Every structure is written in structure tokens, then in C-alpha cells.
Amino acid sequence: MDFNPRYRNEQRGGDERRQQDNAVYSKKIKAGKKRTYFIDVRETKGKDYFLTITESTRRQDDDTFIKHKIFLYKEDFNRFAAALNETIDYVKTELMPDYDYDEFVRRHEEYEEEQNRLNNANPTEEKEKDGDNW
Description:
CATH architecture: Roll
Strand order of the largest sheet: 1-2-3-4
Helix content: 40-55%
Number of strands: 4
Distance between the termini: 27 Å
Shape: globular
Largest sheet: 4 strands, antiparallel
Number of domains: 1
Radius of gyration: 18 Å
CATH class: Alpha Beta
């Protein structure tokens, strides 16, 4: 049987992910209507810890998810964080210093408020639509 990570990732559902991943801590970052990031702390059998950073994008044609994952180990935490911060600062200060980066925060807050209003208006219908069943 050929290994096809795209197929495997698209087929894994919410309950299966929770059972297999053994996350001890998790942060979910909604990034628009179709993209979500997950930052999870995972435990190894030897009681060590590492991070997984997952981008999950909903496919429009069939409502499956395409997932890309990075594994980040403790020995790389400091260098990764420093390089990420340096790269983001470079874009913000050198490439796009006049851009309003808080615009997306405001838009996301407005989107969340609208979703909360919709959920309160018709909670059953919205739960059925929610594709983030992780």
C-alpha cells in the first residue's frame, strides 16, 4: 500500500484526531472562514514534549480538510521562535511598515461576534455547519 499523506490527512476526522494525538495543551487560531491553525504540545512515551503546528484548510468542493504539519522539538524552540519573530519583524518594519496589521484582529473579532450571534439565534443549525470538529 502506498503512503499518501494528503489522503490520510484529509480522511482523519475529529474523534480519531483526539484519540491519536495525545495533546496535553492546545491553542486554536481561526484565520478566516477556511483556515485554522493548531499549536499542540504533545507527550512522547518517554515523557518528553514537542510541538506540532498544523494548518488546516477546508476544501470548498467536498468539505474535507487539507492539513500541513510541522513538528518542533525542544532543542529547536529558541532558534525557531527567534527566527520567526525576526522574520515577522522584517516584514512589518522593512517590507510593509505602513500596513495596518491590527485590521485582521478587528475583522476577526467582528466575525466571531457575528458567529456568536448566529449560534445564539439558531444553535442546532450552526453546530451542524461547524467543520472544526476536532
